[in-house]
Amino acid sequence: MFENVNNLLLLTVVLAITIIFLFSFKLSRKTINEFTNSSLWNKMLTVDFFKVFLKNIFFILALIFIVIALARPKWGLKQVEAKSLSSDIVVAIDVSKSMLAQDLKPDRLTRAKIIFKDLTERLKGQRIGLIAFAGQAYWQCPLTSDVKAFEMFLSLLDTDTVPFYGTNISAPIDLACESLKKVPSNAKALVIITDGESFDGDLKSSLEEAKESQTKIFCVGIGTEKGEPIPTYENGQFKEYLKDDKGKTVVTKLDSSTLEQIALATGGRYYNMNQDQSLNNLVSVLNKLDKIEGTANIFNNLEDRYYYFLAVSLIFLLLYLFIPATKRQKVGRTEDWEKK
Question: CA separation (Å) from 260 to 49, 266, 336?
Fold first, then answer.
């Protein structure tokens, strides 16, 4: 196969040169034959037409092999070990029913997905993993340097991703800390996107685990402190607002206080999604994380073979340069002229 296939188009130029040369050579021989007979011309002319023809053929062949070399031919597999430097960031997104609230348009979850797609594209040299949580937490995308894969899993998130109702912020903390415990503290981070209302789990115990594993947690609050009722849907159509056991409409509010406590307890920071500059600061902080050497990846690459064609082209160029275009003069011819 060829790495730069487009370079093979240069062969059309070489072909045009070849056609012009053959035509001009044939035309010149025809003109000479019309001027005088071949035997007389051979005695008068020192140029050897066969050698001239041969030299030009060698030159054209050299051009052909140079063009093939420029196309970078490759064959034969070669194993290459690649090691990357990166920091590890786990993004945990709340997919509980409260994320359907529309105090941020079109709703909290959709806004979070849009904003964090943009955020991940601005990160540099990180592996990113995705956790979805509600009453429990589950990995959606393992740590990867493939941003497009992360974005694909991010786009698939909805409130049915986790089959357990409720909001348990401690669950993604436990899951992320377990995965990041062997990573140095200054090269990892957990980013949690939620409205902050946590009704399940042992948050205090999870924060202790985060501190022990030296995992900084950056919390991003989504929603408003005024709050908004939670819509419910049936067959894709709005049905009613969610009600509690007493029949009262449930209003979900942003709990900034809880999120600030989580962040401060682990050495992280709290950010409000309503503030654009706040998220710019988050990107800046994440990009400043230390980079560590990751696991080596083994790739099977096709090996470059262009140098074979360059070598052949060099041989043809040398033949072109060193083959004389004139006839070998016979010593006796000079003596014959002197006698006359």
Answer: 90, 10, 111
